[in-house]
Automatic annotation (TrEMBL):
The lineage of its organism: Bacteria, Bacillati, Actinomycetota, Actinomycetes, Pseudonocardiales. It comes from Saccharothrix coeruleofusca. This is 3-oxoacyl-ACP reductase. Belongs to the short-chain dehydrogenases/reductases (SDR) family. PANTHER family: 3-OXOACYL-(ACYL-CARRIER-PROTEIN) REDUCTASE, NADPH-DEPENDENT REDUCTASE BACG. Signal peptide: none annotated. It holds the Pfam family adh_short_C2.
Amino acid sequence: MDLGLDGRVAMVACASSGLGLGVAKALAAEGADVSICARDAERLAQACGKLEAIGGGRVRGQVADVADTAAVRRWVADTAAEFGGVDIVVGHTGGVVQGPVEDFGPDDYRQAVDTALIPHVALVTAATPHLKRGGWGRVLLITSESVRQPMPHNVLSGVARMGVLGYARNLVHSFGDSGVTVNVLAPGYHDTPALRGPSGEDTAAAAAEVPVRKVGDPDDFGALVAFLAAKQAGFVTGALLLVDGGNTRAAV
């Protein structure tokens, strides 16, 4: 299936490893020009090498912390200047401190919002003029299954990332008939450096909790994001898609 992404310009945040890299690889394989960012220059360079080996479109990497709004604006501006625009924006952030509600106070929640919500807002805000100018675009925001099911051990994530849903739903109407769609993905356990323990024990323990008895593959997650970015997904907007192997028990 031709997803119609050849020559499109995609930006993927936090893409030196894990889910972000899986998404960037899938978009590159479809022929998109891919711009990624990460904080660590060495890991960023290694990720760019993997993307270039795929042989799709152009690849660029930029050292940037998504929690730094000015750095995000520079990343968007530099990408648009080099690649001629921005068509696809994939928001992704780092994790937040885990723990139950009684462990945290107001400052902890502010920090969680700054870590898990504001970077999405900063990226989309900076990219919006480019998306609207092109008359076609995709905004895909990666959150967590915690937005659908409260997790007593991960309250900060649930609270901060719920804000991403509210933001995305308002973006749907803001973009209107501009040709830009907005969707949110809520991944569960995936085989990423954030989950993996020194001997893989964390991955095994997570798999035991999931009904399908395995954790997700970042490359499979990337393929799903690539389809939502495709021309065929133009009528899918405002959706929240769980990618968690059935781990979320919520009925609706």
